Amino acid sequence: MSVLDMAMTARIALANVRARKAACRTPTQTVLLAGIEVPGRENDLARVIERILESTRHNVSVATTRMRPVGKFENINSALLNQDLSGYDWLLVIDDDIEVPDRLLDLLIYFSEKHNLKLAQPAHKFRSHKSFTITERHWGSQARNTQFIESGPVSLFHRDTFPDLIPFPALRWTWGIDVYWADMAKRRGWRMGIVDAAPTFATYVRLAGLMTCRLPGKKL
């Protein structure tokens, strides 16, 4: 963990203790967790799934698919093909390259419920591989209302978004799909946000260079 991450964790330590206790009182939700088995990295996905499942109180079902030579979200569509989404409150889409913090899913759902977020993601730690500076964790923040969430490595969707967003567009690359989500959120009046209280660390490089995204955000 970087010095900045240590400082930020200490800064909101008491608030995070309170948030974890509050998250334990959140009504149990039904969640569908979807991921892609990359050949040669199946154990990585299994590790991430196990870590999420062992630290949540929610009812989670898992849907995975073997990676085909198509885009990320077209593969996710395959994982969801035989799933009845009407039976779930949330869809959690994950990559296999993250270090999962304790109570990740519980904190994501708690802050999403508290602030009526329909799309959410955990913030990135400072040395995490990311594409947009807006997704870095913010000082003194537990959650932020933003106009943007990234297409990975962790994306949370509320059931209200399913009719408009699923199935996902069949794009070879994911570039631009998060802008589409932001536009749809604006049209539908959905709130979006980033949860700083449960920052993740992504180990694989996503893009060559870091994009500065200056969309406004508001600490919640």
Q: What this model shows, in words?
A:
- The protein is of the alpha/beta class and 220 residues long.
- It has a single domain, classed as Spore Coat Polysaccharide Biosynthesis Protein SpsA, Chain A (Alpha-Beta Complex), CATH 3.90.550.10.
- Helix content is 32%, strand content 25%.
- Strands 1, 2, 3, 4, 5, 6, 7, 8 and 9 form a 9-stranded mixed sheet that branches.
- Helix 2 crosses helix 5.
- The longest helix has 13 residues.
- It is globular.
Q: Order of helices and strands, N to C?
A: HHEHEHEEHEEEHHEE
Given the helix and strand composition, which structural class is it? alpha/beta
| Strand residues, percent | 25-35%
Low-pLDDT sequence parts: 205-216
The total beta strand count reads 9
In whole angstroms, how far apart are the ends? Answer: 25 Å
Radius of gyration: 16 Å
- Gross CATH architecture: Alpha-Beta Complex
Helix share, percent: 25-40%
List the quaternary state of the chains: single chain
Give the count of helical stretches. 7
Largest sheet: 9 strands, mixed
CATH superfamily descriptor: Spore Coat Polysaccharide Biosynthesis Protein SpsA, Chain A
**Overall shape:** globular
